[in-house]
Amino acid sequence: MATDLNALATFVLVAEERSFRAAADRLGVTRSAVSQTIRRLEDAMGIALVHRTTRSVGLTEAGERLHADIAPSLAEIRAATEATHHLGSGPRGQLRLAVSSIAESFLSGPLLAGFGEACPDVQLDVLVTDDEIDIIACGYDAGVRLGEVIEQDMIAIPVSAPQRQVAVGAPDYLARRGTPIHPRELAAHRCIGWRPAPRAAPYRWEFAEAGQGFAVDVKPEATTNDMALMIRMAVAGGGITIGLEETFRPSIQRGELVPVLEEYCPFFPGFFLYYPSRQNMAPKLRAFVDHIRKSRKRQSVGPKSGIRFSEKSDALTKS
């Protein structure tokens, strides 16, 4: 069977968008053209790849397998052809980023706004998500996550200072219920926790003592996937909550929240822009990487963090 690369590329877009219409918009063709292309591909392969309903589009088991097998290769082909096409010209096109919602410094505005001004022919498409996204399979150029959860085969450069999680409470709450001296005392307090999804377990409250990490079995009276709601509840005296210090910093500076148990809250590597190791990096991504490097001083994360950078390649490695 002759391989129709255009049909496979169309299939990957449909799989990413879960919509014929959205895929058609990205390709600049009609929805009917996309539907016919998928139908021809299915006929050629002799098996259904897509579930179609009046309200949604999903993948069959065969479609899921095909997408997982071909998406990384097609991403490499797109990157190589784009780099060749724009050789000798400025960066252009859409730069797709998947960014953790708690990457406060990266999402604060100046870094992204500055890049938009420096590279007006690049359109930023930023998905803010805490899902564990495979940026290659999902068609993203790069992602931003905490360094400790980035795969070892990725290239990574820092976009924030080292971070730490702190527990915080409102002054009136601590006056009523007392300030915990050790993390074990949190079991006697009202706690506000974070849950990434409805069926997921609440996030573990982790601390360290004498260089050894440990978790406290906190049973929150309230859980949510919205950090802003956690902060509002804590400020209102609803209990103690935990999160990245820079997320709480405005409330701490205003005196609305007070850090507790700080001696048990060590620093760890912060946020990193990460992307696949490619020889043919798209000019738009190269321009973004260069913009980040120019926007902040290269910073080595000290030996206590357990992560360092290769000065030669920026590859993330663990010590």
What do you see in this structure?
The protein is 35% helix and 23% strand. Helix 2 (20-27) crosses helix 3 (31-45). It folds into three domains: 5-85, Arc Repressor Mutant, subunit A (Orthogonal Bundle), CATH 1.10.10; 93-162 and 269-318, 3-Layer(aba) Sandwich (D-Maltodextrin-Binding Protein, domain 2), CATH 3.40.190.10; 165-264, D-Maltodextrin-Binding Protein, domain 2. It has 319 residues and is of the alpha/beta class. The radius of gyration is 23 Å and the shape is elongated. The longest helix has 25 residues, at 61-85. It has helices spanning 5-17, 20-27, 31-45, 61-85, 104-107, 110-118, 171-177, 227-235, 245-253, 283-295, and strands at residues 50-52, 57-59, 93-99, 122-128, 142-146, 154-158, 165-169, 191-194, 205-209, 212-216, 222-224, 240-244, 258-260, 271-276, 307-309, 316-318. The chain has a five-stranded mixed β-sheet, with helices on one face. A five-stranded mixed β-sheet has the order 11-8-12-7-13. The chain is built from ten helices and 16 strands.
Question: How would you briefly describe this protein structure?
Answer:
The protein is of the alpha/beta class and 319 residues long.
Share in β-strands: 15-25%
Strand order of the largest sheet: 4-3-5-14-6
Specify the helix fraction band.
25-40%
Within CATH, the superfamily of the largest domain carries the name Periplasmic binding protein-like II
What is the CATH topology assignment of the largest domain?
Answer: D-Maltodextrin-Binding Protein, domain 2
In total, how many beta strands? 16
Secondary structural class: alpha/beta
Outline the biggest β-sheet: 5 strands, mixed
What overall form do the CA principal axes indicate?
elongated
The whole-angstrom Rg is 23 Å
Cα-to-Cα separation, first versus last residue:
49 Å
Based on the coordinates given, report the CATH architecture of the largest domain: 3-Layer(aba) Sandwich
Please write the CATH class name of the largest domain: Alpha Beta
- SSE series: HHHEEHEHHEEEEHEEEEHEHEEHEE
Number of domains: 3
